[in-house]
Amino acid sequence: MPIISIANLSKTYASGFSALKGVSLSIERGEIFALLGPNGAGKSTLINIVCGIVTPSGGRVTVDGHDIAGDYRAARKAIGLVPQELTTDAFETVWNTVSFSRGLFGLKPDPGHIERVLRSLSLWDKRSSRLMTLSGGMKRRVLIAKALSHEPRVLFLDEPTAGVDVELRQDMWQLVRDLRGQGVTVILTTHYIEEAEEMADRIGVIRGGEIILVEEKAALMNQLGRKRLILQMQAPLETIPASLDRFGLALAGEGRELVYTYDTKAERTGITGLLTALAEAGIRFSDLRTEQSSLEDIFVGLVRGEAA
Fold first, then answer.
1. What is the pLDDT of residues 107-151, one digit of tens each?
2. Above 80 in pLDDT, residue 50?
3. What is the CATH number of the domain that holds 274?
């Protein structure tokens, strides 16, 4: 059974704006699921409904078998949320803040668990520091520690590395891997698409309040990816001969590279025809290489409504 089941979820605000339009989605236990979409696509609204912060207009959500409306306490207890905003009690210490978060869920104190969480986030040395003295990166680590304080089975990371340094980003993704290894399901939204490409097991793309695609990452890149054949010219080209127009070529590297983009799903790539046409046009190349389109290329194409 999926750990999160979302069925026909909708949200329309009083202004008439429809943020979600019949979203259905299942998230499997122990996976890292990346939710991608442009600003205003509905990512945060979807997360906030699942976490009980926003009330849906319609539909049903269960978390670990608990309905988020009918069995709110059990559903919410299964979830840890790391929000985008840095909202923390500035005058409290790191240790007290994280320990208090555990108590909010009715759990008994567990200093050993709190210590493990703080050490995993490089916060142990800061445990007695007041939050107001911490850097932005350290405050974000505290938000993650708070979300993990009650040992949730599901962790939501909403734009977790926005505006943080590279070191923290790398630490955070190691933590995500460790959590997945412990059986925690991780759902993240991110603008850093290379992170989703590196981390996610599956990827969902949301656009205009609707899920337009959910796919395993490897299958997504295989199905929607394109390849580029890059030919290194023996002599620079100023223009591409008209006889080659049908191939949709592009010049790069100050005329020293000729780039041919082709669909990996097509029965014929057209490469043989291209090489023949180049020979007929008297164009010689010294080397060639291929490049697979990145997840970012695919994502940009999807949100524009086209194949990447």
1. 999 999 999 999 988 899 999 999 989 888 888 889 989 999 999
2. yes
3. 3.30.70
Same domain, 205 and 70: yes
Residue 105 CB partners (closer than 8 Å, separation 6+) = 76, 77, 150
Task: Retrieve residue 261's tokens.
Answer: 């983009």
Q: Are 9 and 63 part of one and the same domain?
A: yes
* In a shared domain, residues 13 and 155: yes
- 66 and 124 in a single domain? The answer is yes
**Which range of residues forms the domain containing residue 240?**
226-292
What residue has token string 């599956």?
Answer: 202
CB within 8 Å of 39: residues ≥ 6 apart: none
Q: How far apart are CA 58 and CA 265, in angstroms?
A: 38
- Do 238 and 217 touch, CB atoms closer than 8 A? no
- Given a cut of 70, whether residue 164 has pLDDT beyond it is no
Which pLDDT value is given to residue 136? 80
Question: Could you tell me how many residues make up the chain?
Answer: 308
**What residue type is 1 in one-letter code?**
M
**Do 264 and 189 share a structural domain?**
no
Both structure tokens of 140: 């974000």
pTM of the model: 0.73
